[in-house]
Design goal:
The radius of gyration is 17 Å and the shape is elongated. The protein has one domain. The chain has five helices and no strands. It is mainly α. 87% of the residues lie in helices and 0% in strands. Bound molecules: protoporphyrin IX containing FE. Protoporphyrin IX containing FE (HEM) is lined by residues 6, 9-10, 13, 16-17, 61-62, 65-66, 68-69, 72, 87, 91, 94, 97, 129, 132-133, 136, 139-140, 143.
């Protein structure tokens, strides 16, 4: 069970962070070549599909992440400050990543200021995702 949950957590992280990198560094620059109307239309189609991938990934990351916290708690590692503090930072950063993703993905006019700076916020989310993975690598060395 633990291996399955760990695998699901890593798969979801790969999909989410890799997906953000693909949209930010491949798709967005590529569609800048198109005229405004075609660009918006294509962006909408891509977003509809990407929304499903990100939604499923975030749900999986949350459920399997909480399971991982449970595993750490029962192993006694949560009581060590060297583990506890970074894991709290990791979870808070992950929740910020989720919040930014939510603001960018929600359909309609909500968060239009964030959506108008899509490239900037996707870059921020990508970097935060990398930091979360760095903290995960550190935590893995401790257990
Ligand atoms: C942007 C979202 C997230 C990313 C990219 C991410 C990424 C990762 C990665 C790559 C690992 C390493 C797995 C391994 O070593 O096999 C990991 C471990 C872990 N994650 Fe996440 N995660 C995210 C969100 C969360 C959330 C929301 C939680 C908790 C609610 C969480 C809790 C944990 C815990 C407790 C571990 C185990 C650390 C250890 O003891 O080795 N993660 N995460």
């Amino acid at each position: 069970m633990t291996i399955l949950m760990q695998w699901l957590h890593v798969v979801a992280a790969v999909l989410a962070v890799g997906g953000v990198a693909c949209v930010r560094f491949a798709i967005l620059p590529a569609i800048e070549e198109l005229d405004e109307g075609a660009r918006e239309e294509l962006l909408e189609v891509i977003q509809t599909r990407f929304r499903q991938i990100i939604g499923i990934s975030m749900g999986l990351l949350l459920v399997t992440g909480l399971y991982n916290v449970g595993v750490a708690a029962s192993a006694g590692t949560l009581t060590t400050p060297a583990y506890l503090h970074p894991v709290i930072v990791k979870i808070v950063l992950a929740l910020i990543v989720f919040k930014i993703a939510f603001m960018l993905m929600i359909p309609g006019p909500a968060f239009s200021g964030v959506k108008a700076n899509r490239k900037k916020w996707l870059t921020i989310n990508f970097v935060l995702g990398l930091v979360v993975i760095l903290i995960a690598a550190y935590l893995r060395r401790l257990v």
